[in-house]
Amino acid sequence: MGDEPVNVKEYQELAKQALPKMYxxxxxxxxxxxxxxxxxxxxxxxxxxxxxxxxxDVSKIDMSITILGYKTSAPIxxxxxxxxxxxxxxxxxxxxxxxxxxxxxxxxxxxxxxTIEEVASSCNAVRFFQLYDIAWLKSITKLPILIKGVLNxxxxxxxxxxxxxxxxxxxxHGACQLDYVPATIAVLEEVVGAVQGRIPVLxxxxxxxxxxxxxxxxxxxxxxxxxxxIVYGLAxxxxxxxxxxxxxxxxxxxx
Length: 255
Ligand SMILES: Cc1cc2nc3c(=O)[nH]c(=O)nc-3n(C[C@H](O)[C@H](O)[C@H](O)COP(=O)(O)O)c2cc1C
What we know:
It is a single chain. By secondary structure, this protein is an alpha/beta fold. The chain has one domain (8-47, 62-250): Aldolase class I (TIM Barrel). It is 44% helix and 13% strand. Strands 5-4-3-9-8-7-6 form a seven-stranded parallel sheet. A two-stranded antiparallel sheet has the order 1-2. The protein starts with 7 loop residues before the first helix and ends in a 5-residue tail after the last helix. Flavin mononucleotide (FMN) binds next to α2.
């Protein structure tokens, strides 16, 4: 018990030891100078005033939400990072099982080692697409469509809402694409303000602690998605590691 990792940073350290350097660098790294990668974390740490309330009845706390028709025990979802098999043999299935055990939703982009049906049968899986032709996509599926990668009010209010998608995800894809785009937590309020509650706004990028989840929700996100921490839990301790990471992020004051 004494050497049990107590936070996401320690899971990351274990993942670094467990994975071949090339795989670890792929998961942990960002694009170019990695400025946005650092900013995704640093911008959370610049939000420094959480005002606790006392004399509030907290004997019954219900963090569950219903989003896109799915009920989930907390406003936390697993972001699509693909290639979970690099972090652990059978990685996608183990992550799906952990998601089901913790009652959170898992997003999928594509499955490399198993079919989408196999994973979908293990948990509530929502599929995220990276396509631009929304009208075409709407014509071929009745699945809810979310646009991922929104970073400003024009894309959010004018394009995403008017085009009729079911939700948007404020994301810079974990700082894996264009470097020097802003940290996602820095633009969340602007996007939430533009959407004005018409569709759900999800958020990802840099969440490493329960207080980060709290900050994103306080700034208007309906739910958050977690990318790398899930991979670190998987690489370090398989399904158990993923479950522990999710449990730690559900707590507002993990170590
Ligand atoms: C190794 C890796 C692969 C990823 N692959 C995809 C992908 O295929 N599709 C996608 O929409 N986002 C992808 N992402 C971005 C994640 O969905 C998510 O936006 C990001 O990881 C969230 O930031 P976080 O890792 O700081 O939690 C990837 C991220 C990583 C780290």
